[in-house]
């Protein structure tokens, strides 16, 4: 048996008619740039997360960059980012000329550790960027308290947590802005690059709308120096169809996670993901073991694809040598990079496929 890490084919087959119709409609109308599908999806996604505004942009990285830029964050400023995340969170800060200040994560949740934030705040700090990593909400209550006390913006990176809830409320709606990636493999994914920003701040939404579209208020009236970072109409059409299935898919992911956890509890030295801060939407099911590399090889030999998210911490990447953090700066993050492994996880994973993965993991530790 071959088990892929994600199966976008299976998802397409399950929605083929709806998706084909949506995409062909855009092609027949030839309304490719900021077509009706874009504003329809923005409205639907804003309603879904419970935010007043959504602005569709070209990628998750662009959503983060535009939020930072719209808040006037730039050279000389610092933004607090978890040490353990996909590098795009920090790259957005670098892209506007500010400095990402990394903060160690909490070992149980893999997310930004609120108890370590204050020590990293300086007079240059302008914002905190919690990341809802792997689909689990960051612990927003203490983060928002700290932000309020120090007058900092909160920009959520919700790229892995579409639909996740913290204390009953969807992530992306706690901070000043919530940024989402719709990269194809995300819980809500387009058929190419796409992203979105949600906010209750009308001024921010307007500013990001200008910035994504050459700084135009209306055609050929440029009020700020902008970019071309619009959400593509074809992608919006795909996202509009898929959004209607997101809750069903997230529920299936949670059921798969529960099945993995039930079957693998107590096996070898495995540490299984813990749901500690709210409704986890399991973008990834990430396990830990001291024998990670050997387990990955074993699973690969059985035809099971796994991925390490992420094998080299940001502070040890060549791209971030300039930040001056050495090995040992973030021991938890470094340990995670050596021990974590993401098992196959997607809504369409069948019970038979999952049993095969579980058995292969058990065989390794037997
Ligand atoms: C995917 C991802 C991004 C970047 O999204 P793109 O759409 O690929 O630009 C940012 N942050 C996190 C945590 C992500 O997982």
Automatic annotation (TrEMBL):
The active site is at residue 186. Coiled coil: none annotated. Keywords: Pyridoxal phosphate. The modification N6-(pyridoxal phosphate)lysine is found at residue 186. GO terms for molecular function: pyridoxal phosphate binding; transaminase activity. GO terms for biological process: polysaccharide biosynthetic process. It holds the Pfam family DegT_DnrJ_EryC1. The keyword Isomerase does not apply. InterPro entries: DegT/StrS_aminotransferase, PyrdxlP-dep_Trfase, PyrdxlP-dep_Trfase_major, PyrdxlP-dep_Trfase_small. Belongs to the DegT/DnrJ/EryC1 family. This is Putative pyridoxal phosphate-dependent enzyme apparently involved in regulation of cell wall biogenesis.
